[in-house]
Structure prediction request, 110 residues.
Amino acid sequence: MVNTRTIDIAPSILSSDFSRLGQEIEAVERGGAAIVHVDVMDGHFVPNITIGLPVVKSISRSTKLPIDAHLMISEPGRYAEQFVAAGAKMVSIHVEADANEHRGSRSRWR
Prediction:
């Protein structure tokens, strides 16, 4: 039996040179990336602060690759739909970041 499964490469833009972000995204596209991974950190759920909605919106206009917004933020359910509206095709969250996630609220984002 032939294995038809593929591996999708999803490089994070967190290690990019932000003064050249568009060029960095073009480079990962040329390199065969399947997804652009965006680490969103709020300084509360995790100690670092990184990218927000305006950057995701800008990235979505500069790439044809799907964007995965990885929300490492408190109460991600409050913001998930806004990241989708900004251009994210996928939203990854940490269930422990939102006390209401056990109620199955993720289905409303699909």
About this structure: Strands lie at 36-41, 67-72, 90-93.
